[in-house]
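Progress report, Aim 2. The chain analyzed during this reporting quarter is listed below.
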Amino acid sequence: MVSDASSHSTTMPGGPNWSRKISLYRFHIEDPVCFRKSIRVTIEHGHNNHRSDDISSTAYWYQSEPHQPFDLLPVAQRLPRPH
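Predicted structure tokens for the chain:
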């Protein structure tokens, strides 16, 4: 595991030039991403989006009860693709 004192790390570094499976994480504890109503997050696939990597992410949020129902995709459509 490659890590430093911050809130991110590479748990599986892949091969030369990031050619195999890679696993990393980032916690936004020290620098939260705040929003009031909605947020859209995108991931760049290499410089200028020239790569075709299969990337997935997980996000957690905290909110007060009660809340409106969520409009989420079915679980089967949210699972990572098999390798």
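The first helix runs from residue 75 to 78. The mean pLDDT is 75. These observations will guide the mutagenesis work planned for the next reporting period.
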